[in-house]
Amino acid sequence: MKVRGIIFDFGFTLFHFKNVSMKKYFDCFRRGLSKSIKILKQEKVLEDKGQMMEDFITIFNKKRATYFKQAMKTKNEFPTTLLFKTTLDQLKEKGYEIQEEKIKNNFLEKLAELYHSCEEEEWKPDEKTKFTLETLSKISNLKIGLISNHPNHKTIKNLLRDNEMNDYFDVIVTSAKFGKRKPNSDIFFHTLKRMGLTKNDAEYCIMVGDEAADIVGANRVGMQIILKERDYEFPYEKEINLPNLTRIKSIEEVLQYID
Ligand SMILES: [Mg+2]
């Protein structure tokens, strides 16, 4: 059976987080937030006097936790730009003076990029990722896509660009930009469509991912499914029990499944 398309997940499928631990992961965001705050101060959006800074951080952390819970429940994505916007809006509602004209889209994008910048330094491609993508890109009539559940589109784009991998993909989709997260079916259909494929092509396409959201979602839309097994176990990891699941240990093993 000729494969028409292959879609990869990003984190722990093509790239890994160096020496991953929950502590390290959260530490990245704490450091990232400090960088965003520095810009907010420089631009005089936030002032380091009275309660303002403390209130900003409290609202931000609370809002982040709420969005995270909602995202898990509804499979809607709440982008990091929105997180900064609503935090500043709430700060204003609390009576602080916020200069609206400074909160433009490109400013929110800069804040989000800085917030994720420490995380960005830690994601590295697996040893065989480039070789695998390079090999696949030479196969005629095979479309290559990427779907990442990430709240900031720019972060994924930067990582692919900095590792010279952008050109291998026909389509790069993030939940931040699309608005829905895997395993929601719409994000898979949207990606297939942008790859020039239809719902009927799904059975000739492969999804490669490392967790239930990738595998269960792709299976539901009728795609073939490959799980890249991770060494690191996530907290609250869901077990996948699907009879048609193929398991691989290293990314280049996908090449065996493309004829
Ligand atoms: Mg992943």
Structure description:
The strands form 2 sheets. A 6-stranded parallel beta sheet has the order 5-4-1-6-7-8, with helices on both faces. A two-stranded antiparallel ribbon has the order 2-3. Helix 1 packs antiparallel against helix 4 (105-115), helix 2 packs across helix 3 (80-93) and helix 3 (80-93) crosses helix 4 (105-115). The relative contact order is 0.17. It folds into 2 domains: 5-16 and 125-257, HAD superfamily/HAD-like (Rossmann fold), CATH 3.40.50; 22-120. It has 10 helices and 8 strands. It has helices at residues 22-42, 52-74, 80-93, 105-115, 117-122, 129-137, 153-162, 175-178, 185-194, 212-220; strands at 5-8, 15-17, 123-125, 143-148, 171-174, 205-209, 224-228, 246-248. Helix 10 (212-220) links the parallel strand 6 and strand 7 (224-228). It is an alpha/beta fold and 259 residues long. Bound molecules: magnesium ion.
What is the assigned CATH homologous superfamily of the largest domain?
HAD superfamily/HAD-like
- Please identify the top-level CATH class of the largest domain: Alpha Beta
Oligomer state of the chains in this structure: single chain
Structural class determined from secondary elements: alpha/beta
Helix content: 40-55%
- Number of DSSP-assigned strands: 8
Strand order within the widest beta sheet: 5-4-1-6-7-8
Number of domains: 2
**Beta-strand percentage range:** 5-15%
The average pLDDT score comes to 96
Counted by DSSP, the helix tally is 10
The CATH architecture assignment of the largest domain turns out to be 3-Layer(aba) Sandwich
Q: What is the terminal-to-terminal distance?
A: 8 Å
